[in-house]
Amino acid sequence: MTALTTAHDEHDKHDKAVAAPVRKEGPGTRPRARGPRGRLRRLALPYFLLLPALLLELLVHLIPMAVGIFMSFKELTQFYIRDWGAAPWAGLDNYSLSVDFDAPVGEALLHSFFVTCAFTVVSVGLCWLIGTAAALFLQDHFRGRGLLRALFLTPYALPVYAAVITWAFMFQRDNGLVNHVLHDQLGITDGRPFWLIGDNSFFALATVSVWKHWPFVFLIVTAGLQNIPKELYEAAAIDGAGMWQQIRRITLPSLRPVNQVLVLVLFLWTFNDFNTPYLLFGDAAPESADLISIHIYQSSFVTWNFGTGAAMSVLLLLFLLVVTAAYLLLTSRGRRAVDG
Predict the structure, then answer these.
(1) What are the residues facing 329 on neighbouring strands?
(2) Alpha helix locations (H) across 239-305?
(3) What's the pLDDT band for 1 if we cut at 50, 70, 90?
(4) CATH number of the domain that 109 lies in?
């Protein structure tokens, strides 16, 4: 009887050992590829999931870009709108006209370029300064911090058209809120200045741009501050480092990777900004606020010279590509020098 029981036990152990390598596929088990068809399906799945994004990128950006580059080599005016493919071939004439800074077209484009550079420097610098200061201020816990965060993000959450149109009403000379506060309430200005025409239009445009973009800086810097260990600040405080020393030695170096990407994104957004000046000034922007995006729009849809406008757009694209590549190269070298 004992020998029979032992034989049964040995038989059961043998059956379990044979059945052990067999694994049943459950809900969380990744199915194995069976045959060439399954292996091909597994390799093609990532590309299939990327296909909608690639198609949209092709339709929204790449094809219009290729058409715009082709148009820049054509003498396309209002006389060829119905059949713009029949427009005469201009070669590089549109480009030479755009960069001839002694001629009126090139001189106006160069002035618009300098205005855009000054506007970008002012807007990006103030956005970074205000957003970073607000993020540092709200880093510590205190009552009402969540409400302040929500209020700070309000300009970024508002639709751009509603926000800029509201600012356009506020900048009105006779019944605008800005002149009412500065002149009637505070008495800072001698009279009621014009904000949407003349030299003051540059400051109005910069004000709206900063108001619209600094919450984005605040949001990104706040996220970056969460990755800085609090032990660093505690150790610095024990060593006698003050608030400014902690910001200089700990906060800013830790935020360097975040700021590198943030400044590049702000630069591209601001340099290409079309909605803000168009909603503030309409088709004809003042000379002091003649951004290059509005200038290209006027060259294309106001004077009906689409070939020259397309050439200006291609030149702007090349400039942004060169600046972006140089910026990424410099920042990558700086990062390797710090790591080394």
Answers:
(1) none
(2) 243-246, 252-254, 256-271, 275-281, 292-297
(3) very low
(4) 1.10.3720.10
Is pTM beyond 0.90? Reply is no
Residue-level pLDDT at 73: 92
Separation of first and last alpha carbons in the chain: 77
Instruction: Tell me if 144 is assigned to some domain.
Output: yes
CA nearest to 99, candidates 86, 108, 90: 108
Q: What is the pLDDT of residue 43?
A: 81
Rg (CA), the chain: 31
Within a domain: residue 45?
no
Task: Note down the domain range covering 157.
Answer: 100-339
Residue 180 lies in a domain: yes
In angstroms, rounded to a whole number, what is the distance separating the alpha carbons of residues 178 and 119?
A: 21
| Pairwise CA distance, residues 115 & 109, whole Å | 10
Q: How many domains does the chain have?
A: 1
CB 90 within 8 A of CB 98: no
Share of the chain above pLDDT 70, in %: 88
Q: How far apart are CA 47 and CA 50, in angstroms?
A: 5
- 3-state DSSP call for residue 89? strand
* Residue 190 Cα distances to 19, 213, 276, angstroms: 94, 31, 28
C-alpha separations of 329 from 46, 260, 326 in Å? 30, 11, 5
Fill in the amino acid letter for 93: D
Separation of alpha carbons 87 and 109, rounded Å:
24
Q: Report pLDDT digits (tens) over 35-88.
A: 677 777 778 888 888 888 889 888 888 898 898 899 899 888 888 878 877 888
Q: Is residue 115 part of a domain?
A: yes
CB-based contact 178:171 (threshold 8 Å):
yes
